[in-house]
Structures are given as C-alpha cells and as structure tokens.
Amino acid sequence: LKDAIRQWGNIAGLVAGFLQNDYALISRSLEDVIIEPVRSMLIPGFDEVKHRSKEAGALGGGISGSGPSIFMLSEQATAADAIALIMQDIYQSLGIDYKTYVTTLNTNGVGFSKTKSLGILRQFLASLTIILYVPGRNPEIFLELLVYELGPVQE
Asked: Residue 126 has what pLDDT?
C-alpha cells in the first residue's frame, strides 16, 4: 500500500508538472516504484541508460508501456540529442538492435475526425473478423454490431 500511495503521488506530480511547466516537479515525479523495479531487469542496459541519461541532462524516464521500449524526457533539444547518443552507444556495445527517436511532445492534444475515425474503426474491426468470426454468422453483420455497440457516429 505504501508503494501504491507513493506511485499515485508521482503520477499526480507528473500531471501537475506538465500542466505547470514545472520541470523540477516532472523530474521528481518520473519515478516508478511498482513496475519498473520488476520489468527493468528484463531490459538489458536499462539501468545504465537511465543513469547516464540523467547525468546528460534528462529529467528522467522509464519503461514505455510494458516494455521493452524506454523513454527519457529532457527540457532542451541539445540534451535530447546527447541522450540519444548515449542510448545508441549502450545498445551498440550490447549488440542489441535498436531505434532511437528524438521528438517533441504534442501540445495540441488528440485530434478527432468522426468520418475518418469511423473508416479507421471499420478497417480495424474488419481485420478482427477472422479472430471474432462466429461460424454461420455473416462477418459484415458482426462488424456492424460492433460499430453500433460503440455508439452512433454523425458524419
């Protein structure tokens, strides 16, 4: 329970840090006390990447999703570029294939086009009909039922 309370505080601190552009708060809040200690041991070089990245100016970082992708955040592009080189150096020396991406955060949020989203949803659900197909049932009807379940979309 103690770890869970600490983790919730870190999540709240991270959100508040982003909302207030408080880089020190973001840095302090980028600590995962629940999942990272367990999953990081499954990601070769993770601890070294995190340690050296922080030394190079990273605010912090962690495991992206359930891994093995990792991320680091920095305030400046120059630090981000230096961190990318550190990651590349570590994974080249370990002989592990990798891809690094240096990018900025999306400050506009999620965009939504109902017409385009409905088309993408239909394509996605159509790709699932093999998995979801019920013998004797028309996959197109099943697809329409799934779309309907998600609610009507005004085009």
From this structure: 53
